[in-house]
Design goal:
The complex is a heterodimer of chains A (208) and B (367). Chain A is of the alpha/beta class and 208 residues long. Chain A is built from eight helices and eleven strands. Chain A has helices at residues 10-21, 55-60, 71-77, 117-127, 142-145, 160-164, 184-189, 191-207, and strands at residues 2-7, 38-39, 45-50, 66-70, 82-86, 92-99, 110-114, 131-135, 151-156, 167-176, 178-182. The two termini of chain A are 27 Å apart. In chain A, 42% of the residues are buried. In chain B, the strands form three sheets. Chain B has a nine-stranded mixed β-sheet with strand order 1-5-6-12-11-10-7-9-8. Chain B has helices at 9-22, 37-42, 70-75, 119-136, 147-155, 161-172, 176-186, 190-200, 206-214, 222-236, 280-285, 326-338, 361-366, and strands spanning 27-28, 34-36, 54-56, 62-65, 84-95, 104-115, 140-146, 203-205, 244-247, 260-266, 274-278, 291-298, 314-319, 343-346, 355-360. Among the domains of chain B are: 1-116 and 279-311, BirA Bifunctional Protein, domain 2 (2-Layer Sandwich), CATH 3.30.930.10; 312-366, no CATH class. The chains are: A alpha/beta (208), B alpha/beta (367). The interface between A and B is medium-sized, with 21 and 21 residues.
């Protein structure tokens, strides 16, 4: 049996749709209940919902053989996992944004507000730009409006929140989508099952 | 006579490994737990984590608690043409493990073969790696890869070092989709991209996968491919042949490793239990002329395979009154231990104890 960690929320529902179409229906998983684990009728997989940022932890530590996780979380945390498939859902991008008309203050470190400090450090280090990372845990768009940061680096889906706050994208950093990830040891010992499920999901992704 | 059941999992494992390594002429290597900090600073990139525990010695020198064994072994050896220095070790190292946040003492066993390394030596070390895993569990997989082939594949793209670093990371993650995007963004030849992506996904039994690789390998990697073919034949004749796979996700640090690299997994343990490879580049960076190959087994991971916490404290809980005659108690305990049973003498049942059975003194005397 394969244990599969799914991210709670809209992305998780989209991913479960794919699983269902791939023949891995887990009865009861869409119902409101206190149940935590959901087995497929043939007993080949067991799904469970976890907080999106915890999926890679469950997979890296082997509590889940497979999981579905956003590329943003993988790039930020660099878990030791295999990334087997781009599921093509939950598409968005990681971008730097600043107030309209922004000019980079080249004579001092750039202050960057973000929930993704590692991605930000790597991105600006590649440009050789000196930065001051301000690690925030939400409402990142607020930081440049109140002078806390010069720019922000955050996930941009439609850009409407940015526009509503007078911000605009100044730099594209990373395209994001949901990825199928696997525990490295599970991959060795459940190779056939994991490859089979990956292929079935790949067929659904290609159809979509 | 030593009762091996009393040893912890990693101690039992080390006994088995020691005997195995000695049978191939490997000698024990003992070392101090400390090394000058400056030595590690010079070779920081080789270490999994750059963080090191330091202290100032009585003479004012800044010292480090060893984060690694291989560097010290290389430092203490000398090149001797036509010979190999063959050593094994069982040491604690102190470092922040990959993905961890705090320093940990990590018990590590392993071996190093340093000198004029020939293909037989590579085979012997791979065989010992497989035998080491086999000594720890019946269910294991040894994945191997060849960095000579990976380097040739990456060189074939004609791209710079930054591209090659990113591409190698995609290999390590079996991430063929991002590798394809990366190649597309750099305008890599579509046929080269296709070969690269197929190799990134390669994983399977050694003979079949080596055959599959033959159609994908660039001409520059012909010698490395021939090395793999020979190793595949030789390893196929051992009892472990079916458990050895070719898998290009084994990448290690390409700045230090070259040639064959490998990783071992045991069923039930979620991390790599064994890791090794040929590290001629590290040798040359440290001023040595010889080649080298070796591996480490992370013994502390064995604790997750079998926890002794679930074992009972003793087979028998012998309940005796506080004022019982000590001679009667000694006789009863002697009778039980002579029958091969472990005994814990208590006046009442301990709240947190775990015992096979509970008997009273009178019952023990009559049974």
């Amino acid at each position: 049996m394969l244990n599969v960690a799914l991210p709670k929320g809209r992305l998780g529902n989209q991913v479960y749709d794919l699983l269902e179409k791939a023949g891995c229906e887990c009865p009861g998983i869409r119902e409101e209940s206190r149940r935590l684990l959901f087995d497929s009728a043939d007993g080949s997989i067991r799904c469970f919902w976890v907080k999106p940022s915890d999926v890679s932890v469950y997979v890296e530590r082997g509590a889940a053989d497979l999981g579905v996780c956003g590329k943003d979380i993988l790039a930020e945390n660099s878990p030791r996992i295999y990334e087997l498939l781009d599921l093509g859902v939950g598409k968005c991008r990681m971008a730097a944004a600043a107030p309209k008309g922004f000019r980079d203050p080249a004579d001092r470190p750039l202050r960057v507000g973000t929930s993704f400090p590692n991605i930000v450090r790597e991105h600006y280090a590649a440009q050789g730009r000196d930065i001051d990372v301000i690690h925030l845990h939400g409402s990142v768009e607020l930081a440049p409006l109140l002078g806390l940061s010069d720019v922000i680096v955050d996930i941009v889906e439609t850009g409407s929140t940015l526009r509503a706050n007078g911000l605009e994208v100044i730099d594209e950093i990373l395209p994001i989508s949901a990825r199928l990830i696997a525990n490295r040891a599970s991959y060795q010992f459940k190779l056939k099952e994991i490859r089979d499920l990956t292929e079935r999901l790949k067929a659904q992704v290609e159809k979509a | 006579m030593l009762d091996e059941t009393l040893l912890k999992g990693e101690e039992r494992a080390m006994l088995a490994l020691r005997s195995l390594y000695r049978s191939y002429g490997y000698r024990p290597f003992r070392m101090s737990r400390f090394e000058e900090y400056e030595f590690y600073m010079r070779n920081k990139d080789y270490l999994e984590s750059g963080r090191i525990i330091t202290f100032t010695d009585t003479d004012g020198k800044l010292m480090a608690l060893k984060p690694d064994v291989t560097l010290s072994i290389i430092k203490n050896g000398e090149d001797e043409p036509g010979c190999r220095q063959k050593v094994y070790y069982d040491e604690s190292v102190f470092r922040v493990p990959a993905g961890g946040q705090q320093f940990r003492e990590i018990r590590q066993a392993g071996l190093e073969c340093i000198g004029d390394i020939r293909l037989y030596d590579v085979y012997e070390v791979l065989l010992l790696a497989a035998e080491s895993l086999g000594a720890l569990s019946d269910r294991f997989v040894l994945d191997l890869s060849h960095l000579g082939i990976l380097s040739a594949l990456l060189e074939e793209t004609g791209q710079d070092e930054a591209f090659q670093r990113k591409a190698a990371l995609c290999f390590a993650e079996k991430n063929a989709h991002d590798l394809r995007d990366l190649c597309l963004s750099r305008g890599v030849d579509p046929a080269v991209t296709e070969r690269l992506c197929r190799c990134a996904a390669l994983c399977g039994p050694l003979p079949e996968t080596v055959r599959e690789l033959e159609g994908l390998c660039p001409a520059a990697a012909a010698e490395s491919l021939e090395e793999l073919r020979t190793l595949s034949r030789l390893l196929g004749e051992t009892p472990w042949g079916e458990r050895i796979s070719l898998d290009f996700s084994v990448v290690n640090n390409m700045g230090y490793y070259s040639g064959i690299v490998f990783s071992g997994f045991l069923e039930g343990i979620v991390d790599t239990v064994l890791s090794g490879g040929r590290y001629d580049r590290l040798m040359h960076k440290l001023g040595r002329k010889s080649g080298a190959i070796g591996f480490a087994v992370y013994l502390d991971l064995l604790r997750t395979l079998r926890s002794e916490a679930s074992d009972p404290d003793a087979d028998v809980l012998l309940l005796v009154p506080g004022d019982a005659d000590p001679e009667r108690v000694a006789r009863a305990v002697g009778k039980l231990t002579a029958a091969g049973r472990s005994v814990s003498v208590q006046e009442r049942i301990p709240a947190a104890g775990s015992f096979g059975e509970c008997i009273r003194l009178e019952e023990a005397e009559t049974c």
